[in-house]
Amino acid sequence: MRKIRCLSNVLCLLVSALLVAAPATAQQVTGTLGSPDATTSISGKQLPAPDPKFGGVIKNDALQSKAWWAPRIVPPKGAPNVLLIITDDAGFGVPSTFGGVIPTPTMDRLASEGLRYNRVFSTALCSPTRAALITGRNHHSAGFGVISEQSTGFPGYNSIIGKDKATIGRILLDNGYSTSWFGKDHNTPAFAASQVGPFDQWPTGMGFEYFYGFVGGDANQWQPNLFRNTTQIYPFEGKPGWNLITGMADEAIDWMTRIHQTDPSKPIFIKYAPGATHAPHHPTKEWVEKIRAMHLFDDGYNKLRETIFENQKKLGVVPKDARLTPWPNEVLKPWDQLSAEEKKLFVRQVEIFAAYAAYNDHEIGRVIKSFEDLGKLDNTLIIYINGDNGTSAEGGPLGTPNEVAFFNGVSELPVDVQMKWYDVWGTELTYNHMSAGWSWAFDTPFDWFKQNASRLGGINQNMVVSWPARIKDKGGLREQFVHVIDVMPTILEAAGIHAPEVVDGIKQAPIEGTSFAYTFDAKNAKAASKHKTQYFEMMGQWALYEDGWLLSTKVNRAPWQAFGVANTDPLNNQIFQLYDLNKDFSQSDDIAAQHPQKVKELRAKFLAEAKKYQVLPLDASVAARVVAPRPNITAGRSEFVYTRPMVGLPQGDSPFLLNASYTITADIDVPQGGAEGMILTSGGRFAGYGFYLLKGKPVFLWNLIDLKRVKWEGPEALTPGKHTLEFDFKYEGLGLGTLAFNNMSGLGRPGTGTLKVDGKDVQTIKMERTLPMILQWDESFDIGSDTLTGVNDADYKPPFPLTAKLNKLTIKIDRPALSPEEVKKLEGAQAEALDGKPLTHVQPGPQ
Predict the structure, then answer these.
(1) Which pLDDT tens digit goes with each residue over 356-410?
(2) Which residue of 41, 242, 282, 802 shows the fewest CB atoms closer than 10 Å?
(3) Angle, helix 340-373 to helix 244-262, in steps of 10 degrees
(4) How far is CA 36 from the centre of its chain?
């Protein structure tokens, strides 16, 4: 410990206690101890740092006493600002920095001033990657084996980050940083996202002092369900043309400027997580026009893949001897076999995607420019990760104007139906996704997609790192193995801060990542990777990396095939493939047959890793987990009563009406002159339901993924006075009970709805198919008005407040249970996947 000038023995003991066992870089005290200007760094082993003993003198009166202030905690001298950027659903071949045709000048600039990394690995899915990123632990260790909407009651899959795994935000905060999180938060459990809380799993509860963004997997960028800290921003009033990609950049710039102007010496940490390029792809018109004028995609996705591959070799980001795997003709139709109409639609789809990516990179550049304007860029560590997984193929082979359709089993909407949205693609009238052919190309030089944890197209990202004050090997390429769990220990090493041993009295689990800060030095440009072994697993597909070897399970499910019967033994019922990535960069040469002993060895090691990191039990189911029960605030309840308007209750915490019978009853008072407005709604333009008064008439409407709307309507306007409105729905399926048998045939079945006014039936309609899985995730359950988008644009525009008085709203749900005879019938049966065809025959268009 360096010598410290003390005013008394008491102060020396105090400082020693604060700094015990701290690294040399952290043993720093400034100012006069005991005075208001004193600061100190801490060992960081215990967070928060224990309160020091009073170091002054207390006598009977103040004149004879000596005041004393505890030193303010600050990071070690020279600790950098940190900007951690992670984009969404973007594969290796998306940015121009790594050979893509989409211009990403911000990433290009950072790469020229810093380092490029071509072996950066994700988990193959969004929130699992993000949990690993902020905790430095594997995604199963952090409870995120899958997204929260698929969570199950096992430690590796419950979507709860344990208190023994403090985040990078919390560690930096307690060490004197200002911390913030902008954009996507997909790490708050879907069943803990309401205003009931608890809020310990929200960004502000995990060490990020300021949060501005959305909670969930995706968001309408034109009309997002936004939060500031834990409060919904409502009513949301975006200016004409407002878009969240620009809005969050503005917010981040404002926040960092306020912090700097308040205390220029305080370093800041920003986790910057834009929604781009996750569906819906929502760029501004300006960027669409820029990309369209470039004619980047007229030759199709096969040619695009070849062009990107050539660019990558020219840039040196892939080896000269790398090879492309064959085009998957059995999965995706080659471009030259498409019809003229298919080509026209697909080009429109990808131009919107590319505009979204380019627009996002531009706005990231504005945030970085603000660091420069504040004079902070030189000592700012910027980590810009392209994608939290490979490019998404959840639009299916044909793409879709509504991603919510995919989550409800409609994965191949006919092109002639989709063309009805051609002119509004990417606007607020679509929740759009592109053809998987483009997704395959954007993962060049690899194959497959997001969700595919055994293929590099799902897990091999790329990254640039800039830190002008430290990194001098400008434009260098780094090929060491890096996983997202390595980011947290790298930031801590860069800041000179220890990972804590105890946080809030809880002993911390070991950090599982390995710092890659050693790669910042030019002398280590070709150093061996320090991260030697890494498992991968996502929904039953898995792999094990060990020092260049990669054992992979053969892909047995495309991402859009979510409704089939799951592999009941995903650990063993697999075709195993083996690759030597030291010689085979693109995972193109399966050598399992030549090395059976290596396959056996790595299979055993995967099982050992799986046991170590909470991967077991393996589960290959996909859609079934979305509707599986979990401990939200509605669990075990069959009746819900509301007596006044409220908005903003998220889908994961609201009454779930799918695959069940239910009755909704509203007791209202209609004033003189009549009434209109929303009584109850959940979801929005792209899937949901609404119970409302339209020109005085009661209406109940189901929006079936923006393809069909089923509407019940009273014959006449309600007279002034008290009325009881009721919607009664009788479901004909077996419901969620079938899931225990790996059987989804009981979901999305027919049902009959009856609208009643003051006890009298006014209209009965049978729905031949109901929604099996979800409503629109980023829309909420609202009473008394409608936030964001409406379920039927032809009838009303939000917020559509209810002008009648709501006395009481009651929802009663009756979930079907399996009889002993039905259980016997289902046992051992093979389920058939939903194909969505009953919905695809409709011929709708934008409304």
Answers:
(1) 999 999 999 999 999 999 999 999 999 999 999 999 999 999 999 999 999 998 9
(2) 242
(3) 10
(4) 43
**314 and 394 both lie in a single domain:** yes
Which of 630, 569, 578 shows the shortest CA–CA distance to 603? 578
Distances (CA, A) of 360 to 51, 86, 364: 44, 11, 6
Helix boundaries (H) for 155-237:
168-174
pLDDT in tens, 610-665: 999 999 999 999 988 988 888 888 888 999 999 999 999 998 899 999 999 999 99
Q: With beta carbons less than 8 A apart as the criterion, state whether 488 and 482 touch.
A: no
Tokens 């949205």 belong to 421
Residue 18 lies in domain: 9-73
Closest CA to 640 of 811, 797, 406: 811
- Whether residue 2 lies inside any domain: the answer is no
- What does the pLDDT read at residue 565? 79
Q: Which two tokens stand for residue 307?
A: 């062009």
Q: What is the pLDDT of residues 665-686, one digit of tens each?
A: 999 999 999 999 999 999 999 9
Do residues 48 and 86 both lie within one domain? no
Nearest to 136 by CA among 489, 601, 450, 475: 489
In a domain, 252, yes or no: yes
Per the CB < 8 A criterion, the answer to whether 693 and 672 are in contact is no
Same domain, yes or no: 117 and 33: no
- Cα–Cα distance, 222 to 796 (Å, whole number): 18
Q: How many domains does the chain have?
A: 3
Pick the closest to residue 674 from 725, 719, 722, 714 (CA basis).
719
Same domain? For 31 and 136 the reply is no
The answer to whether 810 and 724 have CB atoms below 8 angstroms apart is: no
Domain boundary among 73, 96, 121: 73
Residues 60 and 99 occupy one common structural domain? no
Amino acid at 410: V
- pLDDT for 238 equals 67
Angle of helix 285-292 versus helix 340-373 axis, rounded to 10: 120
Write down the residue that tokens 């990231």 correspond to.
364
Instruction: Give CA–CA dist 45/197, Å, rounded.
Output: 29
**DSSP-assigned letters across all residues of 803-830:** -SEEEEEEEEEE-----HHHHHHHTTPP
User: What is the pLDDT, as a whole number, of residue 825?
Assistant: 65
Residues 6 or more apart whose CB falls under 8 angstroms from that of 190 comprise 148, 149, 151, 159, 216, 630, 632, 650, 651, 652, 653
Residue 132 contacts residue 167 (beta carbons within 8 Å): no
Q: Which helix (H) or strand (E) holds 624?
A: helix 623-626
Q: Are residues 56 and 163 in the same domain?
A: no
Are 115 and 478 a contacting pair, CB within 8 Å?
yes
86 by DSSP, 3-state: which?
strand
